[in-house]
## 1
Amino acid sequence: QVQLVESGGGLVQAGGSLRLSCAASGGTFSNYVVGWFRQAPGKEREFVARISTSGVITYYVDSVKGRFTISRDNAKNTVYLQMNSLKPEDTAVYYCGAGRNRRSYLMQYDYDYWGQGTQVTISS
């Protein structure tokens, strides 16, 4: 029902910034909690950040607090992830997911729809 497309990834030097976008179509986007996850080579997909339907409540994994900011523009059906002070350990494929009627939104299974991912590579 909902299609998600990530964009904005690329190669950047440590300490630099990137802004990722997650564009949604095919559903009532404002009814969904949206989360960002990432998957590094050889590792499982891990939670990064989530945002409530209204955009007023956000939550981040400890490793990105103070560096990443999640936001959403429901009029544009888009969620963003602003990433500052990037580190080599941030290198991963970043995915956005959309879900609703869940308890925590911290796990991959809390989300019903996923995008294809966008590659983020941080050089040292």
Note: The chain has a mean pLDDT of 97.
## 2
Amino acid sequence: QVHVVESGGGLARPGDSLRLSCVVSGSIVRIEDMDWFRQTPGNERDWVARSLEAGTEGYADSVRGRFSISRDNAKNTVYLQINNLQPEDTGVYFCHAGVRPVFGQPGFYWGRGTPVTVSS
């Protein structure tokens, strides 16, 4: 019914840049508050960045200044621009999507994630 799909990850070297995408599709009216998380095996899933429907942006201290979140509401898509990648940025990046569906109440949905590996 509601589909959340991340893309844009891959193998990168320190100093490289990546642009991740999160596309929401299905029987939806619009996207609302959107967040990016990342996770490595055996660890908790950590919050990285947020884009509120009202326009407010927020970032974890570890990524502020290097990561930039943006959105295209007409395409039901949110982006995460990552600059100056570091090894500690390695992990699976997940999109947490606030969605107003055609049917039922609004809610949050997880994507399956897109992996990012930063290694020299």
Note: The radius of gyration is 14 Å.
